TrEMBL record:
<feature type="domain" description="P-type ATPase N-terminal">
    <location>
        <begin position="46"/>
        <end position="110"/>
    </location>
</feature>
<keyword id="KW-0472">Membrane</keyword>
<dbReference type="InterPro" id="IPR044492">
    <property type="entry name" value="P_typ_ATPase_HD_dom"/>
</dbReference>
<feature type="active site" description="4-aspartylphosphate intermediate">
    <location>
        <position position="431"/>
    </location>
</feature>
<protein>
    <recommendedName>
        <fullName>Phospholipid-transporting ATPase</fullName>
        <ecNumber>7.6.2.1</ecNumber>
    </recommendedName>
</protein>
<keyword id="KW-0479">Metal-binding</keyword>
<feature type="binding site">
    <location>
        <position position="431"/>
    </location>
    <ligand>
        <name>ATP</name>
    </ligand>
</feature>
<feature type="binding site">
    <location>
        <position position="549"/>
    </location>
    <ligand>
        <name>ATP</name>
    </ligand>
</feature>
<feature type="binding site">
    <location>
        <position position="697"/>
    </location>
    <ligand>
        <name>ATP</name>
    </ligand>
</feature>
<keyword id="KW-0460">Magnesium</keyword>
<feature type="transmembrane region" description="Helical">
    <location>
        <begin position="908"/>
        <end position="926"/>
    </location>
</feature>
<feature type="binding site">
    <location>
        <position position="836"/>
    </location>
    <ligand>
        <name>Mg(2+)</name>
    </ligand>
</feature>
<keyword id="KW-0812">Transmembrane</keyword>
<feature type="transmembrane region" description="Helical">
    <location>
        <begin position="976"/>
        <end position="995"/>
    </location>
</feature>
<dbReference type="InterPro" id="IPR001757">
    <property type="entry name" value="P_typ_ATPase"/>
</dbReference>
<feature type="domain" description="P-type ATPase C-terminal">
    <location>
        <begin position="889"/>
        <end position="1045"/>
    </location>
</feature>
<feature type="transmembrane region" description="Helical">
    <location>
        <begin position="1015"/>
        <end position="1035"/>
    </location>
</feature>
Length: 1058
């Protein structure tokens, strides 16, 4: 099927000789469903080259502008305020701020309103800055230029956002398509072009597109003058690989399929220009249908803090209620004999102390006490956390160990809201191409005439043998030295990692099977659809349909068979002729190209040599054809290729298969997409930390499995559970069954496979055999259905590794959502392309890799890194620091965050009990030590202002000293914060106490005049603080001695080493 990618796995052939293939004729496929005007799901009408007609205007389709921002100018304030007041503490203080303007308030309104405004305003400003970055990206995309036909013999440039459905556009080479287009024609006579869909599905291979023959003659401005057509097609949907529609042109209806569709954000390659009609615009395009609205992410700790606030608020209400009930009873008794308090004037009291309306007075007292005890709800904690998060983000941004020198890109914390989540990651969902791999295929080994060539180990061999030796994606001096040591001083070339002295530098001429070797590389140089391009340095580079095809022509060039020119009808080589001992230029007439298809799993070309010999080349195999056999076959092939039929692709494959027989096999090739530096080590460390890793990729199953072994996600001894619908029986069913019966049968098949796999895993539960689940995209679509998602997730969770293949961007997001909501644990998604954006947004944490696929993933991420290997440090070091503020880096410690040890409810309640104990000790010890005795040298006893200063000083000392005991080590930052806080308290007492009594009130000169000069003040502080610290100190030592945690054990080991 056109548009599918070629397999990247090694081509395995083992000996030279005739190879005969016989295929039975497959049954014809079903006709494509008809498209009728107004049919449900197929109601879109496109008036080509007439977007301003009354009929087109009535359809009122969306414009071509897009928006990926979270906010707009209109909704920023209300939506952002809603986000802020979702925090329970903020909402509580908002209510308190309103009440503080009433006479009930025991303090001035500004004292509560100002901190709230600062906290909410700072957070809103941060949200605005982050969203503005998204807005700037949208502006850049919407204002890109494209050429549009004006209806009068010319094209003019306009912005993408101004395109309308039905417009005719001209797209030049290496430009992105501005909308979903119907391909009308190209600069090639046959109407073909090549498209790179990296931004859509992450695949680097080029997709071949071909216009309808009826529109392929529209080559210039004049030809569009009288062009009018009507397209009736499917409504906007997210299916990237399907399209159903009809082109009504000159009274004839022509069926449309994905071959004629050019999707927005894909790029034109290997073609000078194309003409297309706009079908879907803006958010109706398939790439935007796969996109998801930017989510509002909150960390687990923040959500847990809300629950803590609920508990504290309930405690506050309880305390206030008890006090208010007692107050009401006491007030009601004011009129009784013996209970009369003359200073409250119950006979002429205000409403707040009226014994005749004691219930109302009690209610007002409740509101007053609620505000007075409001410090129990720690708004200052939110401020502290925001400051700490910003500092953590700065540490991440400036970590040189996560800086990539090759790309000059550091790590970036694009939001500070989720720092602590990094230390709690349970599952990582990763893209493959460009994330785990370098996105560049390399020719590694080959077998020719039964002899193996190539000395360098491939990634799978390294993984199997335990060799830990990984090179950078791009050549480095160390790599160059290694290449020299392997027998070549030649400059390393991208896509060429082949090393064997028997073949390089022309040495293959001396090999026993030199004729076979000559034919082998001759076939690689000719059997392709690549286009040679001369660089500025006069080096010939290749733009190919797939990276492996580029690797084939590159290795052929490096070994003496340089493909340097292609026309519509010929290919030219600068090749070494062993008979005359030098290079010669030869041109081969290109008669037919049998395109790659997923059914045949191969591509072939038929050429005529300069000596008039007919040859069929089929990737490391060939065949000599006779004119008597070729001419009738060619006539049939041309006739079938130009026909319009629902079974067009199947019939073309059958005709191609008739000629691709009796091939002489020359050998085998092995190419691989190299892993990025440090990927296996990183995955091992993350697995050691107890983190589960899933791979979600658009690649075919075999390719994903190979990469799984190379990066050690799949290992020897691991049992693979494969769920796939790519079987002969299923494929036959797809051709024969009706749509409804097919859907039901496929659903039952996937359900059966999942149930059998679950049963098998259950039986093997005690065997310690690790399982790996591998599922393809078609099966995944059914596995994610409501009836199967629970079983699928149960199976996936029971496996050590999970690989999902041929997944669409939306499926990646749905899988991520399923794992997040069903496991209720922190998920992290990592990817580098636009096809990963939905997955990054859906995960609790999205990490974008600033690779070769653009910046879409980075702009939609929460954190950005240059390579996958930096994920180890981001999670195990920064994640752990952000979660628990210690520096000991050890994988097992990550489980402290996953299991939420330091922020669990027992831990929280423990700290609350510690706080209550400390408060009781401070209160009773201080009051009994100070009251009822002389405090000053003149014999005066302590008043409440002295008691308040002494008690609060004890609180400040106790809190900071407990923090010092909790820490594992000190840096200058801890010293500044802890001891600086204590010093700042004393400075505040001095400065604030110096203000006039109208401002400082009870604090006026109380420290300098009364407390500082009193030995009792300092003695009480010493004794009370030591007493308050003693319970926590004893508990901490008891726990570390008899019930040590991971970090306690690591500290002991470090002490012993030192």
């Amino acid at each position: 099927m056109a548009g599918e990618r070629r397999p990247r796995s090694a081509h395995l052939f083992f000996e030279m000789g005739p190879l005969s293939r016989s295929r039975s004729r497959p049954p014809p496929a079903d006709q494509s469903p008809g498209v009728g005007r107004g049919d449900a799901g197929y109601s879109r009408m496109v008036h080509c080259n007439d977007p301003a007609s009354p009929q087109a205007s009535e359809l009122n389709y969306s414009d071509n502008s897009i928006s990926t921002t979270k906010y707009t100018v209109a909704n920023f304030v209300p939506k952002s305020l809603f986000e802020q007041f979702r925090r329970v503490a903020n909402f509580f203080f908002l209510i308190v701020a309103f009440i503080s303007f009433s006479p009930l308030a025991p303090y001035r309104a500004v004292s509560i309103l100002l901190p709230l405004v600062v906290v909410v305003g700072a957070t809103m400003a941060k949200e605005a800055v982050e969203d503005w970055q998204r807005k700037k990206q949208d502006i850049e995309v919407n204002n890109r230029k494209v050429k549009v036909y004006d209806g009068s013999f010319s094209f003019y440039q306009t912005e993408w956002k101004k395109l309308r459905v039905g417009d005719i556009v001209r797209v030049e080479k290496d430009e992105f398509f501005p909308a979903d287009l119907l391909l009308l024609s190209t600069n090639h006579d046959d109407g073909t072009c090549y498209v790179e869909t990296m931004n859509l599905d992450g695949e680097t291979n080029l997709k071949r597109k071909q216009s309808l023959e009826v529109t392929s003659t529209l080559h210039n401005e004049d030809s569009f003058q009288n062009f009018k057509a009507l397209i009736n097609c499917e409504d906007p949907n997210e299916k990237l690989y399907s399209f159903i529609g009809i082109l009504d042109y000159e009274g004839v209806q022509f069926p449309l399929n994905p071959k004629q569709i050019l999707l927005r954000d894909s790029k034109l390659r290997n073609t000078q220009h194309v003409y297309g009609a706009v079908i879907f615009t803006g958010h109706d395009t398939k790439v935007m249908q796969n996109a998801m609205d930017p989510p509002s992410k909150r960390s687990n700790i923040e959500r847990r803090m809300d629950k803590i606030i609920y508990v504290l608020f309930a405690s506050l209400v309880f305390i206030s209620s008890i006090g208010s009930v007692c107050f009401g009873i006491k007030t009601k008794n004011e009129t009784s004999v013996g209970n009369y308090r003359w200073y409250l004037r119950p006979d002429n009291s205000s409403i707040y102390f009226d014994p005749n309306r004691a219930g109302l007075a009690a209610f007002f007292h409740f509101l007053t006490v609620l505000m007075l005890y409001g410090c129990l709800i720690p708004i200052s904690l939110y401020i502290s956390i925001e400051i700490v998060k910003v500092l953590q983000s700065i540490f991440i941004d400036h970590d040189l160990e996560m800086y990539c020198e090759d790309s000059d890109k550091p790590a970036r914390a694009r939001t500070s809201n989720l720092n602590e989540e990094l230390g709690q990651v349970d599952t990582i969902l990763s893209d493959k191409t460009g994330t785990l791999t370098c996105n560049s295929m390399e020719f590694v080994k080959c077998s020719i005439a039964g002899i193996a060539y190539g000395s360098r180990s491939c990634e799978m061999e390294k993984a199997a043998s335990g060799i830990i030796q990984y090179e950078l994606c791009h050549d480095s001096p160390s790599a160059f030295e290694r290449h020299r040591s392997e027998g070549t001083s030649k400059k390393s070339t991208k896509g060429f990692s082949f090393r064997d002295d028997r073949l390089t530098n022309g040495q293959w001429v001396g090999e026993p099977n030199s004729e076979v070797i000559h034919k082998f590389f001759h076939v690689l140089a000719i059997c392709n659809t690549a286009i040679p391009v001369v660089s500025k340095s006069d080096e010939i580079l290749y733009e190919a349909e797939s990276p492996d095809e580029a690797a084939f022509v590159t290795v052929a060039r490096e070994l003496g068979f340089e493909f340097y020119r292609r026309t519509q009808t010929s290919v030219s080589l600068h090749e070494f002729d062993p008979k005359i001992g030098r290079k010669v230029d030869r041109t081969y007439e290109l008669l037919d190209t049998l395109e790659f298809s997923s059914a045949r799993k191969r591509m072939s070309v038929i050429v005529r040599t300069e000596s008039n010999q007919l040859l069929l080349f089929c990737k490391v195999a060939y065949r000599i054809l006779s004119a008597e056999e070729y001419i009738p076959w060619h006539d049939d092939f041309v006739k079938i290729k130009n026909s319009v039929n629902a079974d067009h692709d199947t019939i073309v494959d059958e005709v191609a298969d008739r000629i691709e027989r009796d091939l002489i096999l020359l050998g085998a090739t092995a190419v691989e997409d190299r892993l990025q530096q440090g990927v296996p080590e990183c995955i091992n460390k993350l697995a050691e930390a107890g983190i589960k890793i899933w791979i979600l990729t658009g690649d075919k199953l075999e390719t994903a499995v190979n990469i799984g072994f190379a990066c050690q996600l799949l290992r020897k001894g691991m049992e693979q559970l494969v769920i796939t619908l790519d079987t002969p029986n299923i494929n036959a069913l797809k051709k024969d069954g009706d749509k409804n019966a097919l859907e039901k049968s496929l659903h039952e098949n996937v359900s059966k496979q999942i149930c059998e796999a679950l049963s098998h895993v259950s039986k093997m539960k005690g065997s310690n055999v690790p399982f790996a689940l591998i599922i393809d995209g078609d099966s995944l679509a059914f596995a994610l259905s409501t009836s199967l998602e629970h079983s699928f997730l149960d199976l996936a969770v029971a496996c050590a590794s999970v690989i999902c293949c041929r997944t669409s961007p939306k499926q990646k997001a749905l899988v991520t959502r399923l794992v997040k909501w069903r496991t209720r644990k922190t998920t992290l998604a990592i990817g580098d392309g636009a096809n990963d954006v939905g997955m990054l947004q859906e995960a609790d944490i999205g990490v974008g890799i600033s690779g070769v696929e653009g910046m879409q993933a980075v702009m939609s991420s929460d954190f950005a890194i240059a390579q996958f290997r930096f994920l180890e440090r981001l999670l195990l070091v920064h994640g752990h620091w952000c979660y628990r503020r210690i520096s000991a880096m050890f994988p097992k410690l990550h489980q402290d965050g996953v299991q939420n040890i330091f922020f669990s409810w027992p831990r929280i309640l423990g700290w609350m009990i510690n706080g209550v104990c400390s408060a009781l000790i401070i209160y009773y010890f201080t009051t009994h030590a100070i009251f009822h005795q002389a405090f000053r040298q003149d014999g005066h006893v302590a008043a409440y202002e002295i008691l308040g200063v002494t008690m609060y000083t004890c609180v400040v000392w106790t809190v900071n000293c407990q923090l010092a005991i909790y820490l594992s080590y000190f840096t200058w930052i801890q010293h500044c914060v802890i001891w600086g806080s204590i010093i700042f308290w004393y400075m505040f007492l001095v400065v604030y106490g110096s203000f006039p009594s109208t401002i400082s009130t009870t604090a006026y000169w109380v420290f300098r005049e009364a407390c500082a000069s009193s030995p009792l003040y300092w003695l009480v502080i010493l004794l009370v603080v030591v007493s308050a610290l003693l319970p926590y100190f004893m508990y901490s030592n008891f726990q570390k001695t008899f019930f040590p945690k991971y970090h306690d054990l690591i500290q002991r080991l470090q002490v012993k080493k030192e």
